[in-house]
Amino acid sequence: MQPTGFESIWAELKLSLEWHQEFSLFFVLVQNTKAAHELRQRVSDYMRSHSKPLRFIKANTPADLPHKVIQTVFNRPEVLHQPIWLELTTLDDTGLWDQLRGQTLATLNKRRSQLENTIQSPVFIELPYKNAADIVSWAPDLWSIRQQIIEVINWSEQTRVEENQDFPLHSNTEALPSTQLAEALGQARSKIQKLHSADTAQKKRNLSIALDELGALLEQTQQLPEAKAAFTQSLEICQQLQQSLGDSPQVLRDLSVSFDKV
Q: How much is the pTM?
C-alpha cells in the first residue's frame, strides 16, 4: 500500500483526468523514482480502461535528445491521439543531460501548436525535481498551458507536510444524514460531468461552485484527499477566471473563498 502522500497525488490527478480527456499537459517532477513508476502505472491503467493506451517514451542515451524523441512524439500518425508519458529523468555529473532536457523542452515549446492540435490526449513530461525552476525558461509557452504540476518527492517529507496541514471541515453545504450522502454525491458528480467542458466564464464559475459542493460532501464522509482535490480544481478554475476577467469584486471573492477551502 502506498503512503498517504501518493494516494493524495493520485486522487487529484485522477480527478483532472476525468475532466480533461483531450489535450492537457502535466509536468511530473520526481525525487522518488519508484513512486513515479507506480504513478505512471496508475495513469496507464486508467487510460487503458478508457481505450487510450499510454505511449511511454524514454530517452535512453544522449543521442536520443532532442531529435529522436521529438520524432517519436510526432511522426507516428496512427498513434497521435494516444496519451504520452515522456520520461526525461536521467542524471549525470557533467550537466549534459540537463542541457539536452532544456533543448528538448525548447523544441517542444516551439511546436506547441502542433502538440495541442495533434495529440488529443493528456501528455505527461517527467523531469528531475531539481529542474523545477528551469521549466519556465526552457519552455515558457508550455508552462503557460500546463494543467497541473505533480511533485513526487520523498515520502518522508511529503507525509510530514500533509500531517501538519489542517483540512478545514467547515463548508456552506449543510450536513446530510448518511442515507442521503450517497445520493447527494452522485448528483454532485453528475453535475460536474455535465459542466466539465464549460466554455464560457459563467459555466466555468458554475463548475467551480459544483466542485466546492462535491468537496464539502466528501469532507462529510472523511474522504479528505478527494475533497482537497476537488477544492484544488475549483481554485484553479478561479485562477483561470482571474487571468481572463481581471480583478473584479466577484472574481476576487471567489478566489478568496477557494483559497480558504483548500
A: 0.61
